[in-house]
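FAQ: What does the model actually see?

It sees only this:
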Amino acid sequence: ANAKDMLTTPYVFNTDEAVAMTKAGADIIVAHMGLTTGGNIGAETALKLSDCPKIVAGIADAAKKVRKDVIVLCHGGPISSPEDAAYILRSTKGIHGFYGASSMERLPTEIALTQQTRDFKSISF
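And it is asked to produce this:
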């Protein structure tokens, strides 16, 4: 993908993967903290949110030792709400933002659908 000038955003789970993907030319390194928690089908076990800044920072440091201009984003695990992302971003040096997936599409949809269903169910006639 990199050779074809496509934007590359690999998920990495540790510092070794961060180094390998940065050496391979990744544009953005996504520090993945595991399956997203929350909602109806979210992971039931995950890292503690308070453990993530250290892990994310380690991944960022490893990637930036290879290439200073690499962009590093956090993602997944207990980082499932805007408040969680804000905590990580404020607590972690060397990262540039948050990479949303389930937290941007699945979780908000579940909340909206659940509320809409409750609203319809509450109609009395």
